[in-house]
Amino acid sequence: MVDLPSRTEIFQVGRQVIVDRATRIDPAQVDTDGSDANIMVASEAAMAQEVLRQLAMGLERLTLDGATGEHLDRYAWDRHQVTRKGASAALTTLEFSRVSAAAGAGTIAEGTLVKTGTGIQYRTLADATFGALDVGPVEVDAQAVEAGKETQVGEGALNAFVAQPFDASIAVTNPEPAAGGEPRESDPTFRERVRDSFRTARRGTVGAIEQGALAVTGVVSAEAVETIDSEEVPQRFVELFVADSDGLASTALATKVRRSLLEYRACGIYVRVSRSTPVFVDVRYRLAFKANVDTLRLTSQVRAATVAQVNSLGANATLRVNDLAAVLNRYVPYGLVVGDDAVVAPVGDLVPSPGQTVRTTLDRVTVE
Question: For 79, phi and psi rounded to 5 degrees?
Fold first, then answer.
């Protein structure tokens, strides 16, 4: 990258023109603050600098790594026909049941609102119908009324109706946690997905199937595993593990992904979408510090960076001790002393079982 000339450098170009060519102006006037020649050259240098700045910004917006925000959206669509994922609402499955069928047949209409004890609301995505003798449970998918991670609820949290349905004895619950509630896709994440669009443009490949899943709002990580027999013959079966940023995937989110794969999987190839579940791990460090370092502040930064590193892992991804050591090495310039025994736990790489996503929390990252 070439640095653009500064205002001072541009001023010197204008000054040199006057010094070399002026016949009716004292060249010394250009260096006299407040003189007409000085003001004229300085103002033109300022305007030239702004023109160059605007030109540089315009050129930067024409590159994948330079474009941001709305300009990145335009770049992605114009060149790759890829759109940014907006904020998504969490999905889960509800179960409706009642103690008796005394109230007879009836339907809980699509769009019925249920809520948690704290007031978070979900709406049903289809009708839930009870026959005359049915007591349930009757299952139906539901989606959070508001998008984002804040409205993603845990198992059993949805336990009340906003308005009671036709039978007052009907109870509601969600037997699995909600998943897929995510904020609007960030520039770095969107940029990497755009970068992969050419690589996965030829549909039917493992990478294309993963890309198709990642295009679904609420999905943050995806790993496709092709089934091959002992003679390395493909079995026309692919298992796809998907997860949101918490390492979770509900049945409703998996269904949403499966429906989206018609444009990505090869014709005749079955792709089973499997729900990922988080497995939480402890990380323990033994650290030393240089003198005159704010050890509490540095320790807090290391712990936060560790959580970010672990929680960036996708479904089925291995947590490697070397990656944790790399996190520590980032802070060596700030006074951290990293020894060979700095990573106390885990003592080796952690390989999750199929369908698991490694995660941690701040309270699980400790320092001796």
Answer: -105, -25
